[in-house]
Amino acid sequence: MNALDELAESFSRLPGIGKKSAMRISNHLLKADQTFLERFAKQLVELHSRIHQCSECGAYTETDPCAICSNPLRERNLLCVVEQPQDVNTIENSGEFRGIFHVLGGLISPLEGIGPDQLPIGKLIERIKKENVTEVIIATNPTVEGDTTALYLQQILRQTDVKVSRLASGLPVGGDLEYADKLTLARSFRGRISF
Amino acid sequence: MNALDELAESFSRLPGIGKKSAMRISNHLLKADQTFLERFAKQLVELHSRIHQCSECGAYTETDPCAICSNPLRERNLLCVVEQPQDVNTIENSGEFRGIFHVLGGLISPLEGIGPDQLPIGKLIERIKKENVTEVIIATNPTVEGDTTALYLQQILRQTDVKVSRLASGLPVGGDLEYADKLTLARSFRGRISF
Questions:
Q1: ipTM field
Q2: Less Cβ around it within 10 Å: N or C end of chain B?
């Protein structure tokens, strides 16, 4: 195995990159600038030491607390609960939400043996009190695990006097009824909005 | 821009990787082993110094001449002409060819201002004589540029007494007549093989 094949092997380990794409990328890099390759290599090596999770919300950040938690202009009474740290970026990019976040780091999944006790729910309730949160938006994925976790959180948060909501689930914008699966269609009926 | 975004930006510059895939890969690497990241980084940095083109055939190699050119078991009277160094690997992986290669490094393309004079045809003829080649297989892509170059090579090689052939063009195996474009269908008629 020569240097080209070795590099392609590394690329093929990444999600969404097959053997052919990996080889194509490696061949492309043979013509790339050495400066680019060195900067790219440095970014890979330094990734772990530069990025960690925010001690407040759990998002990926270089500073602690993260830019969102330490921003006084965010609406701190609005808290959005997500599964993974990267979900924070996805929601931030939409520009729809001006509150603060809380990363669960996992979902209730009986199949994987993850129960409610393994999720940092106590920390969530602590934060709700500390930040005087009035509304919690649950933004877990619309999957079996995401639904279960959302339902569980809703029950737990009943003890507190915060308003609890969940992201709407239904037809994607620009989508086509014809291609919607039965479950999505059923949800879009149940969650219908009156004019 | 934090370290995660910087890494994603580098990934998004690679062919076939969009912004979302780049972010997904970067998030995946956050959970990867540091050893893997360091080996990956080393492979990127060392790529240019370890890989170069074979001085004989032009294929990518770590040794000079390459493993194919220096292999006494290859059929040296059979020479396959390809456009790019990576085409050598593609053909090698098929296991169909046991001869030697010659990389042109480009194709005749009036649009890009590349004429026959810019291609290393003299070197090809030299090699044909030196290696006592009896058959030249032209394996340029079945595109306008590939066809033009193949036609030109065929005319040039008429001066020598080598047999010249070209890879068959037609329906891909497992393909469907219904989805074949007109040009491919026309070629598969012209190149039909009698039983």
A1: 0.81
A2: C
